[in-house]
Amino acid sequence: MTIHEPDLSDAAGCHPMFLGVPSNVEFNKLRKRLLRNTRQALEDFALVKPGERWLVGLSGGKDSYGLLALLLDLKWRGLLPVELLACNLDQGQPNFPKHVLPDFLKANGIEHRIEYRDTYSIVTGKIAENQTYCSLCSRLRRGHLYRVAREEGCSALVLGHHREDILETFLMNLFHGGRLAAMPPKLLNDEGDLMLLRPLSYCAEEDLEKFAAAMQFPIIPCDLCGSQDGLQRNMMKAMLADIEKRMPGRKEIMIRALANTRPSHLLDRKIFDFAGLVTS
């Protein structure tokens, strides 16, 4: 399916979040590209069922801000027939500026819920300082967001993972997990009652960084895992950056490769019947 770019010429006809955005050609191209990539993912992976209610995870980082803005932009244009509820999980991290997200969401007229759960103490109490917090922190956060989604009558939890997140996860599984797996754009939770959606699966992290800067989102850094050096994911990120620098365009080819698998050319006997392969 060919996704046509939206008309951005009518500045008055936009969500309040976009009222003060740059009007230059470069930003318009960036915005159109992100919207196009998001719509393509929504279409390719059948993420949308009209009339549903989505819980949009908002951490305060560039990716989740970008996700929320793009979904609101599409909804404003009549291209996303679902209800959106933004949700921030305040995890009790030291020096977390509690006012930033509520102020931002209220100023832009965005329906939201702020949920406080002290997962910080749990994570730091169970994991040594020289080990990575990300896995446990992520599981705890995901569990609370699923709970909130159920309480709010949402059918899906929507997260801001982008193209690089998917590729980094693929490489981590390849080098450390001994399996071919990444982050799927659409995933049914273990309980079978909620979908996890990733509409930014085709969006480049570099584009989201530029978008966040142009939109002047009030970014909140993560003081938990963001302060740890030597994480496996950072190593994968550096590897991908080096590959892209040496061979521009490789990331785009890699993300396409994840949608173009050939079981007969791999070694997994569970998905291809090598024993039943005989000559005619």
Order of helices and strands: HEHEHEHHEHEEHHH
Please state the structural category.
Answer: alpha/beta
CATH class annotation: Alpha Beta
Q: Tell me the strand percentage band.
A: 5-15%
Termini distance? Answer: 38 Å
Discrete helix count: 9
Strands in their spatial order, largest beta sheet: 3-2-1-4-6-5
Please give the domain count: 1
Low-confidence stretches: 226-230
Radius of gyration over all CA atoms, rounded: 20 Å
Helical residue percent band = 40-55%
State the fourth-level CATH superfamily. Answer: HUPs
Number of strands: 6
Second rung of CATH, namely the architecture: 3-Layer(aba) Sandwich
Describe the structure.
The protein has 280 residues and is an alpha/beta fold. It has a single domain, classed as HUPs (Rossmann fold, 3-Layer(aba) Sandwich), CATH 3.40.50. It contains nine helices and six strands, in the order αβαβαβααβαββααα. α3 links the parallel β2 and β3 (112-116). α1 crosses α7.
How do the helices and strands line up, and which of them pair or pack?
Elements: H1 25-44, E1 53-57, H2 62-76, E2 83-90, H3 100-107, E3 112-116, H4 119-126, H5 134-151, E4 156-158, H6 163-177, E5 186-188, E6 195-197, H7 205-215, H8 232-246, H9 250-257
Parallel strand pairs: 1-2, 1-4, 2-3, 4-6
Antiparallel strand pairs: 5-6
Helix pairs in contact: 1-2, 1-7, 2-7, 6-8
